[in-house]
Design a protein that fits this description.
GMP Synthetase, Chain A, domain 3; seven-stranded mixed sheet; Rossmann fold; Luciferase, domain 3; homodimer; 541 residues; nine-stranded mixed sheet; 16 helices; alpha/beta
């Protein structure tokens, strides 16, 4: 075998911040802080402080591959840690503070975190877990010295660590397969599982994520990541920002409509990214106050499907192009983005919207397929739906500390999603595998059923789960929360389905409840509902 | 060391064409052929024929890492070979047909090509070299069966190879460092040198080249590569096209203004790429015929500096944004692209043009620096100029079959260019290292001197070379070709310099000649001039 004769340059996360400093040294990082003010620094500052923090980690005894955890909002200090921790060879472990403290303690212990850095918003969590987290040697409060809170836990001030250490630091070179960062899945069933990224997977994902057919990020952008840095690395945006030298605007803890809109306008933000619920809050605020965007030209929406009405409102009323995207923790996270093709340029606005409602095409590097119950490939006709499988260099192979378990099917990762793929390669999620209702060999999408339910004016929230059925195995049961003071009967609701879906897909029964349990990322916990209704007897059964 | 737990997916060129087929199967590849017609196929067709050709290469006895050469225009068959050859594990060796046949024979023998595929335009070259190229077992004419030319060389028809072989072929998996393709530098001094790319370097280059801050290519584009596929893989465009699924329009042999403009319009081309001389022909034709572009929105200009007047004409009159880019064979080839930053968005059109005249910022992955005579770093102030050095995963480490020679300086590749870099990281080439005139410790850019000369209405072409000087070591000597019937004296020309450059930089003498020798890529062969004038005695010396 003849090898190519190009340079052996390992892919490294430190290259991102070195590049940003060298080529975009004066580009700005703007952060709304827990201290209450707006903080400004540059990539040059951020790189200098990241080097100081890398030295600080050394003084704290952090070794290569040991884990340094964060419980933090989106801000410059968090971004410094992204580069200081991974760049120095340790593993950045971002924790979702919305999890229950017991779960957080479980994760910290599982990851064997040596240092935990946190925004003081989360001090109560730290105080609740500190005694149970023996691996953590240093608890670092990410706040100015003069704002350090009193605490029963012995705290180290982030700024003291910075100030006590030199900015002379050479980022080490290492194998590009070295572990760089660790995220735990939110784990609606069982314990959370750790996904361990490498420098290689992160860099390849960053290249792919910035492409014009993905997030389309450039040095001309001012990016405001609403998606949290504890949620799959804010979909990779801190890395993408450094690669492109884009201006970054961090919203901190203030994710309400007014705070976000103020920041979008004041900092001339061009692009943002987040889940639909955040956008709902922003749009409601803007509608009520007759506001517009001056500089925002697009937003990335993922996490869950973007409601068609939101997509249309953003584009038609606010001139903000919506980029529908899909991914998961096990995918770093990006899998698909819904960008158009050359053949779509002549479509009418309505026809374009029909394309944009889908989760989109794979980003180059990711391979996907849909399979039926027998594992055989299903056609890409936009109608057949089956289990969605993926593979590629930024897709998980094993879970952390579960190296003896193979989570793959013939080398493909089963996403747990059920989807269609159309002839142009546009994928649309129709359900979660475990939520789909398997009625007599036919699959019914629980999401389709829920979408019809919430389109009824009296319905606040709806979950469709399967109920046992002697003949059909499973049949759909609809669990509904009514809006305050609204009235609707089971019969009225079932009648509402007529003409909207096939007759055999209409739920067999409706149950009204006061509330539906939600998980840490705002998703309905259908497994809890299934548990609750496991002995439920359908009237038809 | 803890390794990440993501999939081990080697980067492979075959993944590009698989992706294009699977996700953009019906996107078009349009080619103006040597047969005279316009040919249309899709990525699906191209992938099928590439698989057939991969099988054909097997039947011809081509083994892993053996070289398959091409002497061909830009067209679909050439693109098929890009994927068939590299994808099957062999090495694609693209040869510049503008070289002298003796040089071509030398290159074929040096590369030990086993198969050579050529457009029949180049049959005279084949007939001249065949007897001297013993390694070549099969000469493949890339033409329809019924148009096969008579020849004294035993020829195989490309279409026969396709038709005789099945399209059942599984692209093999291999180490991503496997050699994939080979280009020789044009070699203005000494023998040409081979640059051996790998699957890894090619894929990383492709990701980087498609970025919004580089060529900004997407599935919405229709790309017309004017830059030849025998010239550093058409700057990587065939790979970028497959990665993005863009429509591709190949101009074949017809690079005159009318043929190009017709194709731009008929195929709704959005973006093109080429050297300034081709654009000059196109613009002259369009000016004369009062034509416009309907769909072209940008063009990439590289190979040599884009004249400011051309940049302005493209943008102001034709609404075509110019992307100035720089690279070299040893860099796959892309090093920099001149895209703007967020801070430039408020500049006036004139101020933006001033940025765009430079060759631009590095594409992420490439690292650059400028050094002085002592090897020390020079400041990035836009004024200091020195030798430009680069490094990165798609930069050459060794030349092919010269593994015992280290062409690097402390791990950096010396580009042979002299440049400035401004505080924003924008690089501007001021000269070639070997062309710069070193006068008493100060460097004088030969290009600056030439630009002033050709701005004189009577000057057709001008080359500035160094002449020996007892006191200053070197002083500039200007060699000039006058326009037909134009008159200008040495004194008038030297007077023309006053106020345009510093007095000490003005040439010491002017020599008028009938012609200046040009190389295969249209560049002036200054080493020939230096040889010719090596005993020249300056009047001041």
């Amino acid at each position: 075998m003849l090898k190519g004769l190009m340079m052996d340059t390992p892919l490294a996360i430190s290259a991102l911040i070195k590049h940003a400093d060298r080529h975009h040294g004066d580009a700005q990082i703007v952060s709304r802080r827990v201290e209450g003010d707006i903080h400004r620094c540059t990539y040059r500052d951020l790189h200098r402080r990241a080097r100081q923090m890398a030295n600080a980690l050394g003084t704290l005894g952090v070794q290569t591959s040991e884990r340094v955890a964060t419980l933090a909002w989106n801000g410059y200090r968090h971004m410094e840690l992204y580069f200081a921790v991974s760049g120095s060879g340790a593993v950045l472990h971002t924790i979702n503070p919305r999890l229950h403290p017991e779960q957080i303690a479980w994760i910290v212990n599982h990851a064997e975190d040596k240092v935990l850095c946190f925004d003081i918003t989360f001090l109560p969590i730290i105080e609740a877990i500190a005694a149970h987290c023996g691996t953590v040697k240093t608890w670092v409060a990410m706040i100015d010295k003069d704002r350090m809170p009193p605490s029963k836990v012995s705290l180290t001030c982030y700024e003291d660590l910075i100030n006590a250490n030199s900015d002379r630091y050479e980022w080490p070179e290492f194998d590009e397969n070295l572990a760089s960062s660790l995220c735990y899945t939110s784990g609606t069933t069982g314990n959370p599982k750790g996904v361990l990224y490498s420098h290689r997977s992160t860099l390849l994902h960053t290249y792919a994520a910035a492409l014009p057919d993905a997030l389309n990020m450039s040095a001309r952008d001012a990016i405001l990541p609403v998606v949290p840095m504890f949620h799959v690395n804010a979909w990779g945006l801190p890395y993408v920002a450094a690669m492109t030298g884009a201006k970054v605007v961090f919203p901190g803890a203030a994710l309400d409509g007014k705070s976000l809109h103020d920041l979008f306008e004041a900092e001339r933000v061009t692009v943002s990214a987040g889940v639909p619920t955040v956008w709902q809050g922003l749009l409601t605020y803007m509608e009520a106050n007759h506001l517009k965007f001056s500089t925002m030209n697009r937003t990335v929406i993922g996490g869950s499907a973007c409601p068609p009405a939101m997509l249309r409102l953003f584009q038609e009323k606010y001139g903000v192009n919506v980029l529908h995207a899909w991914g998961m923790t096990e995918m770093s996270p990006l899998g698909t983005a819904c960008t158009l093709k050359n053949k779509h340029l002549d479509l009418s606005p309505e026809q374009r919207l029909a394309v944009q409602y889908k989760q989109g095409r794979v980003i180059f590097g990711v391979d996907m397929k849909i399979v039926g119950d027998d594992g055989g490939d299903l056609p890409w006709d936009g109608k057949a739906f089956g289990d969605l499988l993926v593979r590629g260099p930024w897709v998980l192979r094993k879970y952390f500390k579960e190296e003896n378990v193979d989570p793959l099917r013939d080398g493909w990762f089963p996403t747990g999603d059920v989807s269609t793929i159309d002839p142009d390669g546009y994928m649309q999620i129709t359900d979660r595998s475990k939520d789909v209702i398997k009625s007599g060999g036919e699959w019914i999408s629980s999401i389709d059923i829920e979408n019809v339910a919430v389109s009824h004016p009296a319905v606040a929230m709806a979950a469709c789960i399967s109920a046992r059925h002697p003949k059909w195995d499973e049949r759909p049961l609809l669990v509904v929360v009514r809006k305050p003071n609204a009235q609707v009967t089971k019969e009225e609701l079932l009648k509402h389905y007529e003409g909207k879906i096939a007759k055999w897909q209409i739920p067999d029964d409706v149950v009204f409840v006061d509330s539906i349990p939600l998980g840490a990322t705002g998703k309905m916990l259908k497994n809890r509902l299934r548990e609750q209704f496991k002995d439920y007897r359908l009237p038809s059964a």
